[in-house]
Write a structure and sequence with these properties.
By secondary structure, the protein is mainly beta. The chain is built from three helices and 13 strands; from the N terminus they run βαβββββαβββαββββ. Strands 1, 2, 3, 4, 5, 6, 7, 8, 9, 10, 11, 12 and 13 form a 13-stranded mixed sheet that branches. It is globular, with a radius of gyration of 17 Å. This is DUF2071 domain-containing protein.
Length: 238
């Protein structure tokens, strides 16, 4: 079943980004994916996104659905038909929506795990956390800021913004393949977050990421972004 083109609004999107040792990612990533590096470091992170009015393109927004969603992401490169491509590998997606969870792999590409989200947002402060049925969890506390992290592998906000805008293609594992999805935004705009605390059961799993191999890099925020999701041809697992 081909994934229909979907449209809606990104009401809020938070990207919590890490520097990760490239050797660790090279050992973790499945073929054909390889880590995309910035100043010698791999880039991974957490996406916490609230979607509104999501519906097939051409349908009225009144039938659209809203949901809170979380994803673990790793910036990658791969060769497709002799051309170097870039995007993100998404080992894990979680959602507050039973529909997203049930329709994962059909209407919504990839497996979506059902999770319980707790969200508190007020005055530029964000406290977001979730825990899924298998105890995968994320928790972040952050505040809007104009201050750049001087320890980032990115030179400035524009460099980080460009990096993630270009990484608009994501592939997530399904049973036998990698499901692909491309994000097309109408008005890309990113601002900064000061992250006071972040916890991720995935990135803190020392069986995957040995102690010292992962370091916080930056936090980014997007609001009120009109967009479309476009299903892509699957990549076969090798």
């Amino acid at each position: 079943m081909k994934t229909p083109r979907l449209k809606g609004i990104i009401d809020r999107r938070i990207l919590i980004n890490y520097q990760i040792d490239k050797e660790v990612l090279e050992n973790y990533l499945p073929k054909p994916f390889k880590p995309k590096l910035v100043n010698g470091k791999g880039i991974g992170g957490i996406c916490l996104i609230r979607l509104k009015e999501i519906r097939p393109k051409g349908f009225p927004k009144q039938i659209g659905i809203s949901s809170e969603n979380g994803a673990h992401r790793i910036a990658v490169e791969w060769v497709e038909n002799g051309k170097l491509k870039e995007g993100v590998y998404i080992p894990r997606r979680d959602t507050s929506s039973k529909l997203n969870s049930l329709a994962g792999g059909t209407l919504f590409p990839g497996i979506h795990h059902l999770a319980n989200f707790t969200v508190n947002e007020k005055g530029g402060n964000y406290d977001i956390r979730f825990i899924s049925e298998d105890q995968t969890s994320i928790s972040i506390q952050a505040t809007e800021t104009h201050k750049w992290n001087n320890e980032s592998v990115f030179e400035n906000l524009k460099c980080a913004s460009d990096f993630f805008e270009y990484a608009s293609i994501g592939y997530a594992p399904d049973k036998n393949d990698f499901d692909g999805l491309e994000l097309k935004t109408k008005n890309w705009k990113v601002s900064l977050l000061e992250v006071e605390n972040v916890e991720s059961s995935f990135f803190e799993d020392e069986n995957i990421f040995p102690k010292g191999s992962v370091k916080f890099d930056n936090g980014l925020l997007m609001k009120d972004i009109k967009h479309e999701w476009i299903g892509l041809k699957k990549i076969k697992k090798t």
